[in-house]
Write a structure and sequence with these properties.
With 399 residues, the chain is mainly β. 0% of the residues lie in helices and 51% in strands. It has no helices and 36 strands. The strands form eight sheets. It has an eight-stranded mixed beta sheet with strand order 25-27-30-29-28-31-32-26, with no helix packed on it. The protein has a six-stranded antiparallel beta sheet with strand order 1-4-3-2-5-6, with no helix packed on it. A hairpin with a 5-residue loop joins strand 14 and strand 15. Keywords: Signal. InterPro entries: Fibrocystin, Ig-like_fold, Ig_E-set, IPT_dom. It comes from Odontella aurita. This is IPT/TIG domain-containing protein.
Length: 399
Amino acid sequence: PADGGAMVSIKGKNFGHSVGTLPTCRFGGTVVSGIRALENLIQCRSPPNQLGRQLVHVSLNGKDFTAESTWFAYRPVIKLLRLTPSNVPAKVGAEITLFGEGLQPGIMCSFDGSGHISAMVMSSTQMVCKMPPRGIAGLVTVTVTMNGTDHSGGLFLRVLNRAVINSVSPLFIPEGTSVQLVAHGTHFFPSNSLSCQFGGHGMAITSVPGHWLSDTRLTCHTPKFAVPTNGDVTVWVSNNGGVHRSPQGIRIPISPKVSAISISPISGNTDGGTVIRVKVSRWDFSFRCKCYFGTGAVSAVAMEGQGNNEVICVSPSHPLGTVPLRLVAEEGNSIAVGNFTFVPRPSIQSIQPSFGHTVGGTPITLRGDNLSGITLCRFSAPPIGVAAASVRFTEAEAL
């Protein structure tokens, strides 16, 4: 390298005839001290010099230099700045991309000093080396060299046990919705390269960042998916940004988008107990669900069949007012239904008249509290309904 420091070995004849003096080497016009390694081998460290080739001569007495010479090439100083991926699985060969300065054809990589591997130079700032499989986890030092002797770099590459995914939650992803997925498995490593990959079955692989929770749990936010032809997507995990994924993936169904068609009734008593029927476009009835009245949740019953996809909820007790109503499946699928209003329970204080003909048709006046909004009267058991159109308010607390 141009900054010097390379140990240069020079072979010749009659190098052993000088006694009491050290040999010297001259690189261009610069003289440096050397050592007599063997009878016909002198070694000197190259001094700094300008780029290009310089003639090298040797001297046994510091004054008389050999008439013969050889060429020594000064090349740009090599610097390694970073590498990717920053980690690789054990027992797997990997391509490592190195970024730096002064990279040039003929450069070689070394992993922990075990041999030299020719690199593919992409440019003066980027090169690729193939790392042989490593049997055990740990840190590996990566260096580069042009001559097999002088090494530059010293970047660290981490070898990890390969990440494995065993299960995920929730068990499905709603169509067109990004959800937070929790992956359970082994050998998850906390780094910026931790990630989840989604795809398979002809779909392009999409990689998203992962958030480390422990060596057995991580989270990531899923992309938004349309329902694929086969109905599901595969998820893998990776410690190095998807360069090496888990050997096996987990298939997750994509649930068709659900919408609410109708809700009845839209109000109920504050002390709860109102049966509410929500008709939906479609629903995965294999999952249990809950109705959320604002932030309060109650169990629901999903009913499928005869064209009636309904979810039935019983309202909880709640203060007066209007709250949003949502359906939430046990595994995370959620839809907004609309608003539900909690009103006081009506009470009857008097009825006039108190009897009528068996053929019906008798107008009846009821007086009491909280009668506003009443649309139906029920007579006896079994109940006999009277249409809402038959109800007429005569004053605020009478109908």
